């Protein structure tokens, strides 16, 4: 006579059966126990005995069970086996590991670049700030030889004496001077903003 066929279950199914069995027995017991005080010594003792009964019943039935392909008759405790089976270990993923290494490399590279920026950017901004200050201050100021813009304009010949080409050159020059003078307030505002950036970056 062939041996009876064993019941094949997953660990999740086996735990579900155990928990449902325990819940049904606990409900039946609570129905017949007097009172509902969870701290009552009698109730606590009965619940302990019921829990031990469920564990023992599962233990006795293990010889007829195959859980996740493993013969439960070969284990010492089916309850311990079901607890251990909840720890699922994912297989090693080479692609994911390579992606992780790439991300770490990018983080390292970004960290190095950020470190260099913290060291170099304040110096660069400081140089630009100084250069912009000089350029802005030079507009309309005397040259190294002491020549001012007003002096140059006074020495220009009357417009009537200029030919068409010289007139156009003079007109364009005056327009450029006007543009530069009009840009001074905006440039000064940008200098102030640049100075604030310099202070912030320098504090990093």
Describe this structure as you would to a colleague.
Pfam families: Mis14. This is Kinetochore protein Mis14 like-domain-containing protein. InterPro entries: Mis14/Nsl1 (IPR013950). By secondary structure, the protein is mainly α. The protein folds into 2 domains: about 5-85, no CATH class; about 120-200. It is about 70% helix and about 5% strand. The protein contains 6 helices and 3 strands. It has helices spanning about 10-30, 40-60, 80-85, 95-140, 150-155, 165-200; strands spanning about 5-10, 65, 70. The protein has a 3-stranded mixed beta sheet with strand order 1-2-3. Helix 1 (about 10-30) runs antiparallel to helix 2. The chain is elongated, with a radius of gyration of 45 Å. The two termini are about 85 Å apart. The model is unreliable at about 140-145 (pLDDT under 50).
Task: For the structure shown, list the relevant keywords.
Kinetochore protein Mis14 like-domain-containing protein; single chain; about 200 residues; Mis14/Nsl1; 2 domains; mainly alpha
């Amino acid at each position: 006579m062939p041996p009876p066929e064993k019941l094949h279950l997953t660990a999740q199914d086996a735990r579900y059966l155990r928990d449902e069995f325990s819940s049904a027995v606990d409900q039946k017991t609570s129905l017949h126990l007097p009172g509902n005080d969870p701290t009552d010594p009698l109730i606590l003792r009965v619940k302990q005995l019921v829990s031990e009964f469920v564990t023992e019943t599962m233990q006795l039935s293990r010889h007829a069970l195959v859980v996740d392909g493993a013969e439960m008759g070969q284990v010492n405790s089916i309850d311990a086996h079901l607890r251990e089976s909840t720890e699922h270990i994912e297989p090693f993923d080479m692609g994911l590991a390579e992606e992780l290494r790439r991300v770490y490399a990018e983080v390292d590279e970004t960290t190095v670049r950020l470190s260099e920026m913290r060291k170099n950017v304040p110096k660069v901004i400081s140089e630009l700030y100084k250069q912009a200050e000089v350029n802005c201050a030079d507009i309309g100021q005397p040259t190294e030889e002491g020549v001012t813009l007003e002096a140059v304009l006074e020495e220009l010949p009357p417009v009537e004496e200029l030919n068409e080409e010289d007139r156009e050159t003079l007109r364009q020059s005056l327009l450029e001077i006007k543009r530069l003078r009009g840009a001074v307030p905006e440039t000064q505002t940008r200098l102030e903003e640049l100075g604030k950036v310099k202070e912030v970056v320098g504090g990093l």
